[in-house]
Known about the structure:
Largest sheet: 3 strands, parallel
Distance between the termini: 12 Å
Radius of gyration: 14 Å
CATH topology: Rossmann fold
Order of helices and strands: HEHEHEHEE
Structural class: alpha/beta
Strand order of the largest sheet: 2-1-3
Amino acid sequence: MAMRLKRGNRVPDVILVSPAERTWSTAQIIAEVCELADEQIRCERELYLATADGIWQVVSRQKPGIIHVLVCGHNPSLSALASRFGPKQKKRELATAGIATAVWPEGHWDNISPRSAVSCEMDDPDSADDD
């Protein structure tokens, strides 16, 4: 999945990580493959057991200049948040190691919302890959 991020030009500027061991392992793999510096991986304690709203609160605190954010967290909250992306709710289920990629029009993190995303694509390890 990290290689797909890299090949698809979706390398994150920052990875926001729950303090759980499994999420840290995932974040480290992604950081290595995407050639990120240590300071681009940030532990966000609030992500552990966070609700969808709690995850969004962490995301919306990003500084200007941060364009691509990757959250390594936990279900069912990540799936619930992904289901809110776009003007109409659509049930989305993230598989283990799955990625929901949402795109917003230009704006600061504190001025956008999950519903203001213009698109959301889902990817998971079982999806066909172009290798």
